[in-house]
């Protein structure tokens, strides 16, 4: 509750801001633009991070967690067959996961590589075999923009049709294998023999990394296992009901795997998505630059405004001191005025941020982010936490910065201040 | 007689660029409760400096000043601020009202600073402003008031805390004759009815004619400290009469 005494000080401070309305207006505007810059950029980065996350977890069906044989990610490239999860181990993992309510679905996978041929020429491919129905289930769980995007042309892969595969557009073009065409995939089995399978192109799609767009193939798990002549898998993705459950489920699974003497390691989606981490780091650096610019603008605007105010009100400061206001009272008065500038600027900034958000919603612009091969809708998110923290930060900053000119005012000689014209 | 301010061998020096100026040289005097004193003299004689020292807004270079029995050099800046707020009132030549506040808010300002601001404070200020004849202008801001009205608001502001001493620096300098006389009479009345002590720095002969005691300064010394025979009661300041 604000007491009547505090109300009078507030009224006094507010009235002081209107003394030079134009100057206060420009200061408030500078703070507001700074506020909006942080929040619009913050909202844009939030949109980017959310979509990259959703793309990795849902669109690419990588889930929140992936279980590998211990050492697969470091040593497995040299000899992947040594790090396969056997059918029996898979069953045990599935059994453990059944008792963890946060787990929505498991999706086994097998990474493969080999040659794909159209009968005349061949090209190398890399790919992952997954169970199509589970991939579809994970993709359906996506919310927001990613959930609404159709990311392939053709028909979806099917559990029952083993030879139906998907090619990236680059690979498809390179080999002239369009939807409905037939080809042959060749690879070494886990025993080192050469194996070949017929295939039919069901769909064409793009992968987020341009360099891989002429190399990747998506196949049903059954196809991958048949090509490698194995019943094993090399990883198992786990989809959780909530992103926030990642650490607790990871911990629980680690404990249970240890208890069941399963030599497995668990990686989170963040650990596996190098692209997400790199983009996040890049945006964080850009954010620091924007933050420094806003910080500088706000600090210089407030110091300039209050220094002018101190100069203009020197005699008044002398009067207040003569009437008994202590130095800290003078500092408090200017700090209060500065805090009000911060509050007014931040609330104006909220309005500008909302207006920007609405404008983008209205115009629905599209863009092609780095490493994307299709245009996607540009959005900015209004993040309540960003809005609140920016408000707190700018009000606190305004208040702290005011101390520099306010201290100067408070330490003026009363006699000199009273004699100031 | 109860002393409010006691000055013993006060010197005040300050620097103006490279030049050292001795504004006051060996001043000794006492201001008693109920005094109605004018400090006068030519420009540069040290009137304002003397008032500033009595008003605890400046510090002396040598000597001792006791304010209500306390050596002011022993006080911190905060303690002096509290003393000014509790025991002193100020009336300035340029009125020095806060332009963004109404007459009423200007008057309650010392109470607000003191931390004594209550709902009744507004009522007290209203009564005071009415007593001073500007009850109809309480919500006016200073720029909407005449010089005389502004000085009345300043007097009300000085009186609101019921101070022991009011320091008035050339209070009539910016007023026309009619308003100047009204203000002088008003202060005289407050002095006689409430016993409030006034110390004026002035050039105004009309004010000098109406004070009880006249302290004449010249070149930083007290040249004369006399009771005004026209106003003083029999022997109020007989002991203070001093010819420098």
Write up this protein.
The complex is a heterodimer of chains A (421) and B (244). Helices cover 56% and strands 18% of the residues of chain A. By secondary structure, chain A is an alpha+beta fold. The model of chain A has no long low-confidence stretch (mean pLDDT 90). With 244 residues, chain B is of the alpha/beta class. Chain B has a seven-stranded mixed β-sheet. A four-stranded antiparallel β-sheet of chain B has the order 2-1-4-5, with helices on one face. In chain B, a hairpin with a 2-residue loop joins β1 and β2. The radius of gyration of chain B is 18 Å and the shape is globular. The relative contact order of chain B is 0.18. The chains are: A alpha+beta (421), B alpha/beta (244).
Briefly note the structural class of the backbone of chain A.
alpha+beta
| Count of runs of 4 or more consecutive helical residues of chain B | 7
| β-strand number of chain A | 12
The number of helices of chain A is 15
The gross shape of chain B turns out to be globular
Rg of chain B, Å, rounded: 18 Å
Mean pLDDT over all positions of chain B = 88
Q: End-to-end distance of chain A, in Å?
A: 39 Å
Shape of chain A: elongated
**Helix and strand sequence of chain A:** HHEHHEEHHEEHEEEHEHEHHHHEEHH
- Largest β-sheet summary of chain A: 6 strands, mixed, barrel
* Unreliable runs of chain A: none
Determine the mean pLDDT of chain A: 90
Strand order of the largest sheet of chain B: 6-7-8-3-9-10-11
Secondary-structure element order of chain B, N to C: EEEHEEHEHHHEHEHEEE
Kindly estimate the percentage of residues of chain A that lie in beta strands according to DSSP: 15-25%
* Residue share in helix of chain B: 25-40%
